[in-house]
Design brief:
By secondary structure, the chain is α+β, with helices and mostly antiparallel strands. A hairpin with a 5-residue loop joins strand 1 and strand 2. Helices cover 48% and strands 16% of the residues. Helix 3 packs across helix 4.
Length: 353
């Protein structure tokens, strides 16, 4: 066995050390591709007071506005129908079920649309407050808009009858009902915006409600001819009314939005928060406009986004990083990455000509 004393001594000189090259580090806060194809923000070399590593997650369809608003509108409309249907009579038009059917459908559709976003955001307190307000407004608007819709239906029917239309199987009659039912969409859109105290949201809600409810009303009669059963046709027709209204509101909102935050990482990955208000608060309190839960490092009111004309500013009360750098007060640019605790957002705005 050879002696270890026979082995040559390993010597490292200063020249040897100087020739060693270290691998380049990604800049702090930069997006890093992992082996699995996901994206990460930050890196292991980030200082302790820097942003946490946040993996960009694939968004769920359940967090898309058109989906959860459509589902909420559908469930709300079916709830209103289900309450009145046992008391509805196709022969006798003087039962309370006949009288309350459409107002109840409108009221519970408003309820569904009013609480949908709060439920998605896991804010029970906000859902209760908005739900009570939506029920109250929906009850009032349900009766008011029912009267208006009947007036519109009567006028449009008189017009098509004067043109020679005498059968409910004529598409002109279907269009007449669609125009009348669009009035109910206006009611749903108004309530949708009012519960969030946003004029822009009300405007988009009215536009989307007009489109969705109008489409739902137009196909109501063809559905009744296909099903040939009064209760089934009403269930499908009113359900479609609520569904189409919610989906249309979500699509219109998304298409016409001006500035918004897209959640890239965290429990709400894939959701977008449209910035409607001049001041949008962010924090772990359910009273904030953007409620961030399941992260003890986030303060009750952690920061705010303020819109001043064409410019958007981020103000922080707790640690917030924008594109990897700590920010206290900063003007945002479209594409900026905002990190708050375990949450990561992309700030985006519509390009202006």
């Amino acid at each position: 066995m050879a002696s270890t004393e026979d082995k040559p001594t390993l010597k490292i000189t200063l020249d040897d050390l100087a020739s060693v090259e270290l691998p380049a580090q990604a800049p702090r806060g930069a997006m890093v591709a992992t082996a699995t194809g996901t994206k990460q923000y930050g890196n292991i070399a980030t200082p302790a007071d820097g942003p946490a590593v946040a993996v960009e997650e694939k968004g769920s369809v359940f967090l898309q506005g058109w989906f959860y608003l459509g589902a909420a509108g559908l469930l709300g409309a079916l709830m209103g129908w289900g309450i009145c249907e046992p008391f509805f009579s196709d022969a006798n038009r003087h039962t309370w079920g006949d009288f309350l059917m459409l107002p109840m459908v409108v009221m519970f559709t408003c309820l569904g649309l009013g609480v949908a976003e709060s439920i998605v955001e896991r804010s029970g307190k906000k859902a209760v407050i908005r739900g009570l307000l939506a029920l109250a407004l929906g009850a009032v608007f349900g009766f008011i808009f029912d009267i208006v819709a009947n007036m519109v239906f009567g006028i449009s029917n008189a017009i098509i009858y004067s043109m020679g239309v005498q059968s409910a199987k004529n598409p002109a009659f279907w269009l007449s009902r669609g125009i009348a039912w669009a009035v109910f969409g206006v009611a749903a859109g108004v309530v949708y915006g009012l519960v969030d105290r946003s004029g822009s949201k009300t405007k988009y809600g009215i536009f989307g409600g007009l489109i969705g409810a109008g489409l739902g009303g137009t196909v109501f009669d063809p559905i009744s001819f296909a099903t040939r059963t009064g209760s089934v046709s009403r269930a499908v027709g009113f359900g479609l009314l609520g569904l189409a209204t919610g989906v249309a509101i979500g699509i219109v909102e998304s298409a016409l939005k001006d500035r918004w935050l897209y959640v890239a990482s965290g429990p709400l990955a894939g959701k977008q928060f449209i910035l409607y208000k001049p001041l949008t608060t962010i924090g772990s309190s359910q009273g904030c406009d953007i409620y961030l839960f399941k992260d003890p490092s986030i303060l009750p009111q952690h920061g705010a986004i303020e819109m001043r004309g064409a410019q958007t500013f981020l103000r922080s009360e707790g640690p917030i990083f924008v594109s990897g750098a700590p920010a206290r007060m900063r003007a945002l640019q479209s594409g900026d990455l905002i990190q708050i605790g375990r949450y990561a957002f992309h700030f985006r705005e519509r390009q202006r000509n």
